[in-house]
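Risk mitigation, structural track. In case the binding assays with flavin mononucleotide fail to produce interpretable data, a predicted complex structure has been prepared as a fallback.
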Amino acid sequence: MRFTLETVRSIREVWPPEKPMSVRLSCVDWVEGGWSLQESVELARMLGAEGVDVIDCSSGMGSPKAQMPSEPEFQVPFAEAIKKSCNVFTAAVGLITEARQANAIIESGRADIVFLAREHLRDAYWVVNAAGELGCPERAKLPVAYDHWL
Ligand SMILES: Cc1cc2nc3c(=O)[nH]c(=O)nc-3n(C[C@H](O)[C@H](O)[C@H](O)COP(=O)(O)O)c2cc1C
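Fallback model:
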């Protein structure tokens, strides 16, 4: 915690105050008796007080004993717990793949942002398709050249 807090303090000193700063936390390490969500909540509170705007809620596999579940939204509860107890925005990440699913996480207030990684590798048009599926008016503003490839 001290290392994280000292790093954040040093960055915040030089990073313009109007620009957002995020920190990715391994909210649990999936080891019994290891780093817990409650400890992450405490750390997130301290990070918020240091001027961190967003906690990106991941989890860690730092130990061979770690037992990580592999199911959709498995890290969303971390974003939800930190958002409820701390004065920071949270990002949910990990096995979020569908547009409606991503939107529901935000609309239900479980997180403020969703991050997707591997789904963007599977579908480079994920954002365009999601905008279409959700009826987002921005979809119509796509440069016409892109539509030839859809
Ligand atoms: C091979 C691999 C290694 C990763 N290592 C880490 C890691 O060390 N720490 C971390 O927070 N996330 C790690 N991630 C998670 C990614 O940074 C990213 O958050 C995740 O892939 C997003 O979930 P999604 O790909 O299911 O959308 C890893 C992901 C993969 C596929």
